[in-house]
TrEMBL record:
GO molecular function: glycogen phosphorylase activity; pyridoxal phosphate binding
Gene3D superfamilies: Glycogen Phosphorylase B (3.40.50.2000)
Keyword Cytoplasm: yes
PANTHER family listed in its UniProt record: GLYCOGEN PHOSPHORYLASE, GLYCOGEN PHOSPHORYLASE, LIVER FORM
Protein's cellular compartments: Cytoplasm
Enzyme class: transferase
Gene source species: Thermohalobaculum xanthum
Keywords, in A-Z order: Allosteric enzyme, Carbohydrate metabolism, Cytoplasm, Glycosyltransferase, Pyridoxal phosphate, Transferase
Record-given protein name: Alpha-1,4 glucan phosphorylase
Biological process according to GO: glycogen catabolic process
Mitochondrion is among the record's keywords: no
Function: Phosphorylase is an important allosteric enzyme in carbohydrate metabolism. Enzymes from different sources differ in their regulatory mechanisms and in their natural substrates. However, all known phosphorylases share catalytic and structural properties.
Amino acid sequence: MPRELAPAELAEATRHHLVYSIGKTPDAAKLSDWRLALSRAIRDRIVDPWVATTRHVYAHDLKRVYYLSMEFLIGRLIEDAVNNLGLEPAAREALASLGVDFDAAMLDEPDAALGNGGLGRLAACFLDSMSTLGIAAHGYGIRYDHGLFRQSFRDGWQIEDAEDWLAQSHPWEFERTEAVWPIGFGGEVTTRDGRPRWEPAETVLAAAYDTPIPGWQGRWVNTLRLWSAKPTKIFDLEPFNRGDYMAAAAPAVLAQTISRVLYPDDTTPQGKELRLKQEYFFTAASLRDLMRRFFSDHDDAGLLPSRVAIQLNDTHPAIAGPELVRILMDERGLGFDEAFAIARGTLHYTNHTLMPEALEKWPAELMARVLPRHMQIIERMDAAHAAEMRAAGRPRPDSVGCIRDGEVRMGDLSFIAARRVNGVSALHTDLMRRTVFRDLHALHPDRIVNQTNGVTPRRWLRSCNPKLSAVITEAAGEGWEADLDRLAALGPLAGDAAFRERVMAAKQANKRHLADWIGATCGLTVDPGAMFDVQIKRIHEYKRQLMNVLELAALWNEMRRDPGAPVPPRVRIFGGKAAPGYAMAKAIIKLINDIGRTINADPAMKGRLAVVYPPNYNVTMAERLIPAADLSEQISTAGMEASGTGNMKLAMNGALTIGTMDGANVEIHEAVGADNIFIFGLDAEDVSRLRAEGYDPGAHVARSGRLSEVVAQIRAGVFSDGDGERHRAVADNLTGHDWFMVAADFDTYWDAQRRVDAAWADPNGWARKAVLNIAPMGRFSSDRTIRGYARDVWQVTPQF
Ligand code: GL2
């Protein structure tokens, strides 16, 4: 733990940075200047332990973990730094002495939204845990100029605008001008001195920017290294001198395009060639970087698997397999067999979704054109794998292979190039073995392992929910933030009325705070005494926000029919973005907003039912909503949500889950017990059976009076100013196709919601359930997950 810092000392350091790093005087400084100055002052506190960590790793030659991910949804780093270094009291006092509002300064930092959703946020939680546990790790990714788009609503439709997190200087990073790698694309493969030689047609530079990642109490500091694309030449002098400035700048513009934007789509391979280039760009730069580090103190490439573990976060960095083989063969002179064996001892692959459209595939023609040498190596790896299987008496079925039907299959490539392949929840891993990877699993029965996801309790409990954290500290003692199993101490207190009251008082305070924010930002008055019912995640058909809003409309119908019915007041809150190209998800957003507007405008619903959908859901908004949630909606079609992590964050903060037996809900159900969760609907086997039998959504709609009524209202334009056409695509899809089985689950969802109502009517019982949700959450700390990876996948020993 770094030396204690007195508020006066931090205030002085902040003032110093304001003047000498930011170039402003206190009288002229704006909030963002103060925030940048404070960030610099805090960053100074991280550098010494960062250097010490690096020295320790070198001195002990610790095995290193490299986490390669296209996405790191890290949010505001000032919060992690203040929180993990225990600086909040000092920083609060220091800023107060300078006349600056600490909370406003914290919120002033723009979210680094370098990810889409769960996959990217998981990577951020893992960074925090790897530093907290003392694992020698680097995160490697892309320093996108523009992170995930900014969402607003116009007439209830989603509008996207470019996000601009780098508009102000980013105070946490260090540019490393010495760490620059040329990355090639295209061209051809020739032979020189008997060795294949790739001569790319086009080259860009990958320039490194390092962000230190301090763990809990700042004992260990790892590095997140993000790559930015730069041109090899700033501009072409010849056209410039001719006065053709556009032509002079063109090569630079093209190069910079590679790290310009994050693809706002996390389920389908997009933008083809540029996306493939992005993937190769950061993977190749990362491999060169880590291989340089490895060879700086080892001569024997054969040692790589014992010194280095590389984790591929989904298939996006899957080109790491052929790239590593290429480096070992073409640059280090190893034979193919040896190179392939080394790669297969070093690489590991995490699968994050079973949706077939998300397992990346590239046209073989594109791969051969952009990465000709890699295409040769992929063919060779694939042939070697087939030969190996034949020799072992287990010939491959036709369903296996990296190149099939003119496409390169990154899922198969990742699998055959990896030492371990893991799923992200028990159910998901089981389904991986039985469905998408069934044949590969039969060939390699030991390769697939499970590592259920987790979330960092430092950010998702301690920092976002200080009130509940204080109650937990009273019950479990100091230090639970790095030892979350200690929450178990809360279990026996569920029966203690005074304790329950303290937990619920924290919840109530958080709800009041959120209600104020909703009033200020959405112009809606909501009652903090109502149940806050929250569904926050990317908008996707499989996540079934549609089912939620249809039930909401049905509830409205019921409440209007029977105004005296004892329905507890609810505020239903949505948060989430739809991929810009995903028309159905955008149509669902519009429907939510239309139904919400209709309900909110009904005077009879005042104080009884309200709908809130604040635009631009992001990490910071999640930190507001989660501590204030009573009910957590986790209602995906069973078998579709690989794990979910919002489900964990919400339960950890005392929200009760209404959900299907999907992803990590299954394990949450097991942990909290059937009495403390509202499970409903088809399970994964029911879903596949029903699909196989021939699912008829129209029949389900017809059988459900409530659902039919809502569908008829949608078609009649009840929610759309009489315009029956507006939501036709959604209604037609529901009655005619409904791949995600909203109609089949609707009635059991309705029933589960009424069980929720009944439970809410008993405040003591609800509070007890809330405590019994928090108590077993140690299991969903990302520290537990990372210990699992360390032991079962990477074979490294955490230092703490
Ligand atoms: C996801 C899964 O959909 C989600 O269930 C899982 O929790 C996360 C992290 O493992 O990964 N896969 C994916 O592509 N995104 C996810 O959130 N974006």
